[in-house]
Amino acid sequence: MRKYNHREIEPKWQERWENDDLYRLDPDSKQPKWYFLTMFPYPSGRLHIGHWFMYAPPDAKARYLRMKGMNVFFPTGFDSFGLPAENAAIKRGVDPKKWTYDNMDYMRKEFRTMGASYHRKNHEVVTSDPEYYKWTQWLFIQFFNHGLAYRKKAPVDWCPKCNTSLAREQVKGDERRCDRCQTQVVKKDLDQWLFRITKYAEELLDFSQIQWPERVRTLQTEWIGRSEGAEIKFQIENSSEFITVFTTRPDTVFGATALVIAPENPLVEQLTTEDKKQAVQEYVFQARRASEIERMATTREKTGLWIGAYALHPFTKERVPIWIADYVLMGYGTGAIMSVPAHDERDFAFAKKYDLPIPTVIAPPDWDGQPLSAAYSESGKMVNSGQFNDLSNEEGKKAIVEALAAMDQGKAAINYRLRDWLISRQRYWGAPIPIIHCQACGMVPVPDDQLPVLLPDGVQFLPTGESPLKLSTEFKNVTCPKCQGAAERDTDTMDTFVDSSWYWYRYINPNKPEVFMDKSLKQWFPIDEYAGGIEHATMHLMYARFFTKALNDMGLVDHREPFKRLFNQGLILGEDNQKMSKSRGNVIDPDELVQEYGADTIRTYLMFIGPWEAGGPWSSKGIEGIVRFYKKIWNFILDPTPTINGEATATEIKDLQRILHKTINKVGNDLENFQFNTVVSTLMELFNYLAKAKETAVVNTPHWQEALKTFILLIAPLAPHISEELWEALGQPYSVHKQSWPKYDASLAANEVFTLVVQINGKLRERIEGVSLSASDEEVKQLAMSHPNIAPHLAGKELKNVICVPKRLVNIVVK
RNA sequence: GCGAAAGUGGCGGAAUUGGCAGACGCGCUAGACUUAGGAUCUAGUAGGGCGACCUAUGGGGGUUCAAGUCCCCCCUUUCGCACCA
């Protein structure tokens, strides 16, 4: 008999499937469509085990859905713009383009060894291809024309190592580090392009149309950071102008003893009195110098300075001093607050330090009228608040906002933490921003017929902090499309997250000259399922939703959410339980594993290792179990059926069918729910059963042959190669992957008898096998209580209660 | 500091959602076959007790006939957010 040799069968079938284009997408098929998207990889050089973990289990699911009769679209490509290419280029002196495209060639070969059924042939998308980024640029122009892309000079987060600005989402953690290289970011004043994602802040909070994991919804909700409150205008003394503050507690306005504005607030210069100028300038200078990290540290003592000016309280008309303090952030709200020391912890600390009054305006329960020893930020009755006294503070909020509105000094307001998305990057390997700056005409979009704006080759791209494209005069100097005068191209490139914010539309037909006008596109959207890592919760996944809403508003797509269902797989760790990295030396190379064990084994093992959403450490030990599993299956199918005399009993046949159909059902359900680990264990249980049954007369029945076929069909999604080989060995027609999923018959899966669990006072005492499902509660109780192992326990005890759970257990309560 | 999730044998993990805890696999122990091997097969494997039994799902309390699962408190770990007014 042949031995199982993956090195022989895997390349063989991979070649045949490829030649036959076995998984070719038929867009005209009448089968229900199912768009199953996985996050596409960055072409970093070679596949690591994490790629396999991310792509092999979805492939199993895609194969299952196809067998179930769905027209599954399962595309992939490469997110191929981005910094690593440049960094590698600098390090090794190769062209970023060459590095990237060589990597993709290599990785495509590696991908092939996985035996995945991705639609690569006619649907692959590569974001650095001009044919692709032409549309990234075209979309930028649509955003520009619709007021969703704008340019602004502002202090931005700058990574000194990557030498580029970053979006807020790409700055991580309390130490404010670059998402890519972990370097601490600094602030820099730059003219930058932003996408107006804040326009959709409210709608992005609404997840009612999509089924996404709670975690992601929470992360996005917190990131958007909605807070309800009011804007209150304080008139500046001796001026007709106002300072607007945002507060969530308008009910505490009578407790405001100062206005505090951020050091960066332009009002500082305007309002500071002559005698305070020098001190204020010094403070502002210090504040600017202090890093973000220092300013963010919550434990840091509050500092600030009175700038000499006053505002007038909107109700009492009393003078309220205006201070600056760096605990007020320019980037949130209006960059100015009313300081209410009695009811805000930070304001309390500030007032204590600078001896500002701390009037109580919301009475804590049992308040004795004495000054508070700590800020009280809960609710309570309003006091010291003029006409609003004795209202509950919740009523007070409404009443005060109404009164302010009547005076035209305030209104209800909602504030978001979400900032607009900064997309300018001062790097080379990205899609050029398709804008021409003309002295006369301003910012002019590149006309459609001149797209794409090609990324020039042979540019000196060393990161200097300036955009490398600036150095290319050929690229930079152009004529204005409007006035034909001399003009300059924008020399920044786009954040690669722009490239990946719409790629799923391009998969359908990457070679067509049009994208969104293509009618055949519509029927695939929104995407049924999207699988990828949770690390993209507040970046890619939020940008993707924003893009879809914007595209919908522009009439380019007909849906407002891109992905109906999202699933996050976990992270695969090294054997030391640490994140895999070259420096730790714990990286697992899938190529070696495939060589040694074969793709089917690796795929299955990755599914078996634990819940997909949990991830976890790789262990090379457990893989032996899967190796044995497939070896045994191989021998089981190819070994001649033993000669067994006699006839199978009806029970044997029913048992066989029962476990078979139970397995069909469970494997299907678990695949649909991404519970790959129990798919594998269920199939192992079935196999263990079949291996034993092979020694019984059941092998003489036609049911046995059916069972073998069914078993191969069930493992086909997990192990595409070995199943194809064994399918052929069973004399079945090519290809196993074109077969229908076995039909589940609930009546065959149903039990006829059950094991009755007998408990006394909730403790297991006996199991009675083979109890009829049709037995009445009374009969079951009788059966239990009269059982020889149970009856003695009951003797001489007072019977309190007998609980009967139908088809399951009896619990006898005695005293 | 705030918020969320998780904690089950030596290990990875199951558990029809309140009803037999430990499926499946790794590892380990013993045996068989042996061309002596890190192959294969068979049996065993939560802990304790000679035993009938007892004890076990991070710890403590509670609800319930019945709790890994629900409620309260605590501990630990992981992950978000972090002066957001």
What is the strand and helix layout of this fold?
Elements: H1 6-20, E1 33-38, H2 49-67, E2 71-73, E3 77-78, H3 83-92, H4 96-113, E4 125-126, H5 130-145, E5 149-159, E6 164-166, E7 171-172, E8 177-178, E9 186-195, H6 201-204, H7 214-224, E10 227-236, E11 242-247, E12 258-261, H8 267-271, H9 277-289, H10 292-296, E13 304-312, E14 319-325, E15 336-339, H11 345-354, E16 362-363, E17 381-382, H12 393-406, E18 410-415, E19 421-422, E20 424-425, E21 435-438, E22 442-445, H13 473-476, E23 477-479, E24 486-489, E25 493-494, H14 496-499, H15 503-506, E26 527-533, H16 540-553, E27 563-569, E28 571-573, H17 590-597, H18 599-608, E29 615-617, H19 623-638, H20 650-672, H21 676-693, H22 702-715, H23 720-729, H24 746-749, E30 753-760, E31 763-772, H25 777-785, H26 791-794, E32 799-805, E33 809-814
Parallel strand pairs: 1-2, 1-26, 3-4, 12-14, 26-27, 28-29, 30-33
Antiparallel strand pairs: 5-6, 5-9, 7-8, 9-19, 10-11, 10-13, 10-18, 12-15, 13-14, 16-17, 20-25, 21-22, 21-24, 23-24, 30-31, 32-33
This protein binds one RNA strand of 85 nucleotides through helix 7, strand 11, strand 15, helix 11 and helix 19.
Provide a quick synopsis of the model.
This protein is of the alpha+beta class and 815 residues long. Helices cover 35% and strands 20% of the residues. The chain contains 26 helices and 33 strands.
